[in-house]
Structure formats: C-alpha cells, structure tokens
Amino acid sequence: MTDLSLVTLPGALPDKRQVAASFSRAATSYDSVAALQRDVGEQLLERLPPSLTPPRWVDLGCGTGYFTRALAARFGEAGGLALDIAEGMLNHARPQGGAAHFVAADAERLPLQASSCELVFSSLAVQWCADFASVLSEARRVLKPGGVLAFTSLCVGTLYELRDSWRQVDGLVHVNRFRGFDTYQQLCAASGLNVLSLESRPHVLHYPDVRSLTHELKALGAHNLNPGRPGGLTGRARILALVEAYEQFRQAQGLPATYQVVYAVLEKPL
C-alpha cells in the first residue's frame, strides 16, 4: 500500500525560491492578465458553506490581494491574514489593504498557532507546493474544529496543448508539471479533514496566437519553472516549429489553452 504522506512529485515541481522570485517579478503585471485566476477564485468563494462567518480567516497564497479584499468585504478585514511566499506580491498587496497582516510564509509550514482560525482560503497557489500532504496537515492544525479549508489548484491536463506541441518540437520540459486529480483525491481523503466537495473542471481560454499565450504566462509569473527546462534563448526555428504544431489545435475562437482546475472544500471535524 502506498504511504500517501509521501505522494509528492520529487524533482518535478519547481524550487520554492524560484517560484517566489518569479511571482515577485510578476507582481505589477499579474492583475492585467489574471482573468482566469479571478474567475476561478470567484467560483471558490461561491462554494464556501453559506453559514460560514469566520472571525479569523487566512488567504493562503494571496498574490496581489484580490481575494484578500474580497474576503474582507465578506467577513471583515480585522480578522484577516494574508500569506504568500513571494515578497514582491506582498509588497504589492499590502498598500491596498484587506487584511490585518500580510506575512511571508510557506504553505507547508504555516507560522500560525494551532486552532487559530476558522477559514483557510487558497486559490491557485498550492499547485506549487511539492509536499501537498504537509499543506493539508498544516491547514488541519491551524483550523478550529468545524473550520474550513477551501482551495483551488491545477492538475494534470493543464496546458496540454502547449505541452504536446513542444513535445513534437524537441521533447524537452517546457510546461509546468502538475499532480493528477487522483492524487488530490487520495491526499484529501487521508488528510483527517472531511471532504465536503472535490471536483476537477476544465477552463479553456483562447488566444489569437502562441505568442499571446506565452507572454501571458510570463506576465502571470507562471511560465516554465520546472527542473529539466531548457536553458537559454529559444531559437527561431524551434519557435516556428512550435507555432506549426500548436496550429493543429486551432478552433474557431482561436488557439485553446486548457486549465484543469481542482475545486475543493474540506472541513475539520468537530
């Protein structure tokens, strides 16, 4: 039997320092291209239990603070704590308010006391955590009994069009790797939290050309960060080959880019 506490992606997910640096650099451009991120986070807000009124809440992986401010509007700013591993994001979010404190923190080792909050909200952040079992364990530790962990993440199938197109060109790692949905199911089931809802849904964006997609990924800070990615500049011939390969996916609306999004709401037992 597999020990689910050890189900990670060793050597596959990016180094946290690279993730923090990449998103810090993207802080000023992120919101201009984050339509998908806003849509996904809004859907996560709608999935919160209607009866939930947390005096103390955490926005884990707060980024530019968009959902920090949304949570504050719903639950009050005084009890809010915004956490992110990227100092640049925190520096961008802090002046806009929304939480009592903005703190640099790692989701796998939260700087919070046990049973100290009623809600941990995290949208499109935990896919960068190599040890997701620790993320769940930490959320369980800091939540009060009856408290809720609500998160969205990305799983296998995300940007498969770009991945498959690059695979035709050179077979190297050009697209970020993500866990399978079955791994999320297994780890959530083994977390000690009650799974209220857990599903995976595709979101498909369309672009006029490949350059528009790759520029958006860079502006988000979510371009290729994985070990094994090719170094240096990409030659013109390879770019032209990529464009030709991706054109095979073209639809009437443009070139599709699929994001396979995990939506989850878990509750700490009373």
UniProtKB/TrEMBL annotation:
Domain Methyltransferase type positions: 58-151
Pfam family, one: Methyltransf_11
Keywords on record: Biotin biosynthesis, Methyltransferase, S-adenosyl-L-methionine, Transferase
Top-level EC class as recorded in UniProt: transferase
EC number of this enzyme: 2.1.1.197
CDD domains: AdoMet_MTases
Pathway terms, separated by semicolons: Cofactor biosynthesis; biotin biosynthesis
Taxonomic superkingdom: Bacteria
Catalysed conversion reaction: malonyl-[ACP] + S-adenosyl-L-methionine = malonyl-[ACP] methyl ester + S-adenosyl-L-homocysteine
Function summary: Converts the free carboxyl group of a malonyl-thioester to its methyl ester by transfer of a methyl group from S-adenosyl-L-methionine (SAM). It allows to synthesize pimeloyl-ACP via the fatty acid synthetic pathway.
Recorded family membership: Belongs to the methyltransferase superfamily.
Name of the protein described by the UniProt record: Malonyl-[acyl-carrier protein] O-methyltransferase
Organism: Pseudomonas brassicacearum
